[in-house]
Amino acid sequence: MYRAYALLQPDSEFTNDEAVRRLEARFTADAVTRSGGQITVRLGEWEIELKLNEEAYVVTESIALAEKIAGLVDGIDMESCHRRVEIWSETPDPFVEHLADFHTVIEVMKSFRGAILVDPGEPALM
Question: Which residue of 62, 72, 104, 117 is surrounded by the most CB atoms within 10 Å?
Answer without folding.
Answer: 62
